[in-house]
Amino acid sequence: MGVSVDGFIADREGTFGWTVPSDELFRFHTAQVRELGGYLCGRRLYETMLAWETDPSLRDNELDAAFADVWCALPKVVFGRTLDSVQGNARLAEASLAEEIAAALDATDKDVSIGGAGLAAQAAGLFCSAVA
After folding, report:
1. Helix (H) and strand (E) counts in the chain
2. Cα–Cα distance between 91 and 65 in angstroms, integer?
3. pTM, whole model, 2 decimals?
């Protein structure tokens, strides 16, 4: 996840435009996502990334189309108390973060990624308490 030196993900207006990657970095991210077996994300990240599944204009070039294909195929679990439903290859989390992490890992022999600042912080907290 892109983070500024001072620890911010979004700019002052709450947008992520400053994190737009170069073509080389975008290819690297696409390759990383291609190797995942699942993705756990918070509501805001899910809503931001949903465009890759719903906006045909994001398939206008080869790089974007390749990422959209990979992203759409990836199973996702969304954590969001204000969501009633999700679209695409996603489902709403039904259990605790620890249980959903375990279920996601059990469902694949690949890595599972966690995205969204708050969710990633919670997952790091779980990991830190488990090893302490």
Report:
1. 6, 4
2. 23
3. 0.84
Phi then psi for 21, rounded to 5 degrees? Answer: -85, 160
Q: Cα separations (Å) of 120 from 1, 79, 101?
A: 10, 11, 11
Which parts of the chain sit beneath pLDDT 70?
A: 1-11, 14-19, 130-132
Residues in the chain: 132
**Nearest CA-CA partner of 74 in 29, 119, 37, 112:** 37
Q: Which residues contact 105 (CB under 8 A, 6 or more apart)?
A: 38, 112
∠ Cα 54 29 12 (to 5°):
70
Return the pLDDT at 31. 97
Question: Can you tell me the distance from the alpha carbon of 107 to that of 75, in angstroms, rounded to the nearest whole number?
Answer: 10
Among all chains, which residue has been given the structure tokens 């996502």? 33
Torsion over CA of 46, 48, 53 and 56, rounded to 10 degrees?
Answer: 170
pLDDT at 117: 79
